[in-house]
C-alpha cells in the first residue's frame, strides 16, 4: 500500500515521498508525515539474515513507495559503501551487559552520516522523478554534526549547492574545523552570532519566505533541507534500529519477539522518533528512553506534558544536544493528537508566540512508552570515566549522557530488559571533554595531542576524518549576525538585494 505524506499543520494535501523529500518542509511550515506507518513485510528472523544494505532496502521501500527497486537500491549502494570504515556499517558492541549501537563509522564520524550519506542520492533521484530543472539549494542549520555530514554528502553533487549555518561559539573545535575545511565548489559554511535555535529558526523563516522563493525560481534555484525536518533524513534513521534488533536476534542475544529498550541522546528528537517509527513497524521495542543534557526541555515535557523553551540556554560538553526547540517533536505531537493537524498547528503557533504549550491529559496518556531524564555535566563526565575504568571503552559526551540516563532508569525501575544505547558520535570529535573526564591532567595538551593520547588509551586507530583536518586549510570564514541570514543567503547565491 502506497505511503503518502501530509503536513502536520494541514493534512488536506497529500504528496508522494519523492515530492516530500524534494520540498523538505511543507508550504504551511509543517513537517511531512506518512499517512500511516507501514508494517515490515518480512519477518525479523528473515531480516536477521540480511546485511545493512539489504535491511535498508526492506525498511525504506515501504516508506518511499514511489521509488522503483532500481532507484532505491542504487541510492543505498552509493551511500553505504567504503565511506564507512566497517562492513557492518553500524556495529553493536556489548559492554557491561548493554549494547552500544555505534553510528559513527561514516565519513564524518557521527550518526548523521547514517542518513546524510543517502539523502543527496534520494534528493537527486527525487528531482529527476519530478522533472525539477532548478538547482537544489540545500539550506541547513547545524548544532555541529549535521553540517559536516551534509557538506560531505552534497560536496560536488551535480545540480546542488549547500549552505550551512552554525553557532560560531556553540560547537566543538573539531566540529568547527571539520566544517570550515570542507572542500567542494558548491559548499558554503557560515558561522552566526547566536545559538543553534537561532540558526534553525532563521532557516525555517527563509524556507517560508514566499517572496524569496519567487526570486529563487527566477534564478533557476529552489530550496530543500538536509535537516531532520526532511522526511528523507528520518526514514534512513529507522533502518539502524531494525538492524540493531535483528543483529541481537542473529547473535542469539535475544529470542524472536523478545522486547528491547532503546536509549537515545536527544536534542532534536528525530533520532528517537525513528526508533518510535521502528516500534510501530513491528520491532519489539518496550521503552524509548529519551536522554537530555542540562538543556532538559524534553525531560520536562515527558514529566509534565508542558513544552517550555523560555529558559536559560546552557552550553555543554555535548553541543549537538544544546537545543531548546526540538523540531521533530512536532511529528510525535501530531500523532498523539489523533493526527489532528488543526490541533497540532495551535500548539506550534503557541510555541512560536509564547515559547510554550501544554498537551492534553489524553495525549499525555499516549506517551507511556517514553521515559525521559537528563544528565548534568558532572554525571556525563563520571559516566565516561566509569565505563572507561571498568572496560577500557571510551564513549563520547553525547553517548555518555545516554549512559548516565540509562543508569538512572535502572535505579528507578530495576528493569532488566536488554538495552541498546544509540552511540551517536566518535569520542575523537570531542577529545578535550572526553579526555578531561578520564583525567583532568590531560587539559594541558593541545587538541591534536589529545587525539593521539585518546587513540593510545582506547586502543582505537585515529579516524581518517580527524587525520584529514589536522593540516587542512580553512576554506570558509564567513560570519554573520543571526538576523542577517536571509541577506547572507542572497549574497551567496548572487540574488540581487532589493
Care to describe what's here?
- With 498 residues, the chain is of the alpha/beta class.
- It has a domain at 92-109 and 232-465: Rossmann fold (3-Layer(aba) Sandwich).
- Strand 9 (260-265), helix 12 (270-281) and strand 10 form a beta-alpha-beta unit.
- The chain is 45% helix and 15% strand.
- It is built from 22 helices and 15 strands.
- A six-stranded mixed sheet has the order 3-4-14-9-10-13, with helices on both faces.
Question: How would the blueprint of this fold be written?
Answer:
Blueprint: E1 5-7, H1 17-23, E2 32-34, H2 44-47, H3 52-63, H4 69-79, E3 92-95, E4 98-102, H5 112-116, H6 119-129, E5 135-141, H7 145-154, E6 160-167, H8 173-180, E7 187-193, H9 196-207, H10 210-218, E8 221-224, H11 231-250, E9 260-265, H12 270-281, E10 285-292, H13 297-304, E11 306-308, H14 329-336, H15 341-354, E12 356-358, H16 361-365, E13 370-374, H17 377-391, H18 397-413, E14 419-423, H19 431-438, H20 447-458, H21 464-470, E15 478-481, H22 485-493
Parallel strand pairs: 4-14, 5-6, 5-8, 6-7, 7-15, 9-10, 9-14, 10-13
Antiparallel strand pairs: 1-2, 3-4, 11-12
The CATH topology of the domain at 92-109 and 232-465 corresponds to Rossmann fold
Largest sheet: 6 strands, mixed
- Radius of gyration (CA) equals 21 Å
Percent range for β-strand residues: 15-25%
Offer a quick outline of the entry.
By secondary structure, the chain is an alpha/beta fold.
